[in-house]
Amino acid sequence: MIHVCPLSRLEQTVSRTGAGRLVTLLSADMDMVRPASIAAQDHLYLRMNDIAELRDGLTMPGEEHVRRLLGFAYEWDRAKPMVVHCYAGVSRSTAAAYIVAAALNPAQCEAELAAMLRWLSPSATPNPRLIAVADVLLGREGRMVAAIKGIGRGAEAFEGEPFELDPFG
Fold first, then answer.
1. How much is the CA Rg of the chain, to the nearest whole Å?
2. Which of 86, 87, 169, 95 has its CA nearest to residue 132?
3. Which of the residues 25, 84, 123, 138 could staple to 92 if both were Cys, CB 3.0 to 4.6 A apart?
4. 3-state class percentages of the chain: helix first, strand second, coil last, to nearest 5
5. CA angle in degrees (0–180, nearest 5) for 139-144-145
6. 123-147 pLDDT per residue, tens
């Protein structure tokens, strides 16, 4: 199971779920403390800003970020849940959860997975740049991009509510 949450609910989510793996997607200037129950080798820290177009002084999500995310996902033995978080739990983390679910279950229809994401998280607004890069790397021929565009922008929220996404459900 993949659990998604904002930074403010990270400790609580890791503790509640018994997670064994953690993906952090935060800006380069942001610090966070890895929960003690997560081993260093089970924590992927991706530093990027939540942007979709190049902006001076900011780190745009790119191919290297997505490649590292995919590698981390493929190494996951799924014995314990994975938690994915960003600052608000709305954009980068929902994109990463969608990408991991699509990568681990390549037969899953992209539009059905996006619809499930929207149902589970009304505020989810996956970062379009992360989705576009993953679409190319996973050979989805634009279907991931179209599916995320199809669900549109999520409901306004200061931060998303934690939710879980089953890549095989």
1. 14
2. 95
3. 25
4. 40, 15, 45
5. 110
6. 999 999 999 999 999 999 999 999 9
What domains are there in the chain, each with its CATH number?
2-165 (3.90.190.10)
d(CA 93, CA 132): 15
Q: Taking Cα atoms as reference points, which of 60, 68, 46, 74 lies closest to residue 128?
A: 60
Q: Are 140 and 99 contacting, i.e. CB atoms less than 8 angstroms apart?
A: no
* Cβ(30)–Cβ(87) below 8 Å: yes
Q: What is the pLDDT of residue 28?
A: 86
Task: Please state, in angstroms and as integers, the Cα–Cα distance from residue 33 to each residue in 22, 24, 43, 103, following that order.
Answer: 12, 10, 11, 28
- Give me the pLDDT at residue 111, please: 97
Is 0.85 surpassed by the pTM of this model? yes
